[in-house]
Amino acid sequence: MKFDNSISAVITGGASGLGRASAYALASAGVKVAIFDLNEDWGNKVASDTGGSFHKVNIMDEASVEEGFAAARAANGQERILVHCAQVSKGGRTISKDKENGGWKRFSTEDYAFSAQGILVASYRMASLSALGMASLDPLEDGERGCITLTASVAAQDAQIGQIAYGSCKAGVNGLVLPLARDLMDLGIRCNSIMPGIFATPPMLAVKDKAPAIWDGLNASVPFPKRLGKPEEFGSLILELNRNTYFNGQNIRLDGAIRMPPR
């Protein structure tokens, strides 16, 4: 896909972290961006910086997402690019000690279902609704109408203790990619996922301030380069996945060769 101001993108979680880096990268390449997020202050700031638009969207709510797409398309035109970074989940071991009674407790089915909704179901929701809009577009070179990038995690392949919901649901995100790519192939819509390792996003930067020894250990755990990933490096890969039409049906690790230990 060639970038210019006729191309529009929707980025979920675009107010911060990997989503914000994606928005800046795409906007710097001439793409019109729409930011979907719940944080209005940060989202409006990114929209202002990129010349794009901000839309308060809850990825857990179908009506909110549909309204967000309608508003973004009214502002920038039908998107050819979707970058889905937003997620909601809960953590905990399958079975853990119950500090209240000294016995054992289970990670509840309700908490697991909540995480599945916030990661896996939300990924399908965003991808399918975006693809429905992309189907109306005239094809570009190679018959391409659009490109969807979902955000998985290295936890999809090496989830740690306490990541039963997060790891399995991120694996599910990877599992969406090939059937989506095949379902959408006759429409010329591609789908890939990125599995980021440990990135210097706001939650991780908070660790740097509060627990510098843990921060140093995280950096040292990456084989090379020995540092956390830069959000800009995620944004760079977003550009390449959209530019290079032959990327399709792929789950790509972006992690400095890290393989996560059990804990």
Automatic annotation (TrEMBL):
Record keywords, A-Z: Oxidoreductase
Taxonomic lineage from the root: Bacteria, Pseudomonadati, Pseudomonadota, Alphaproteobacteria, Sphingomonadales
Pfam family, one: adh_short_C2
GO MF term list: oxidoreductase activity
Residues that span the membrane, as ranges: none
Protein name as it appears in the record: SDR family oxidoreductase
Organism of derivation: Sphingomonas lacunae
InterPro entries according to UniProt: NAD(P)-bd_dom_sf, Sc_DH/Rdtase_CS, SDR_fam
PROSITE patterns: ADH_SHORT
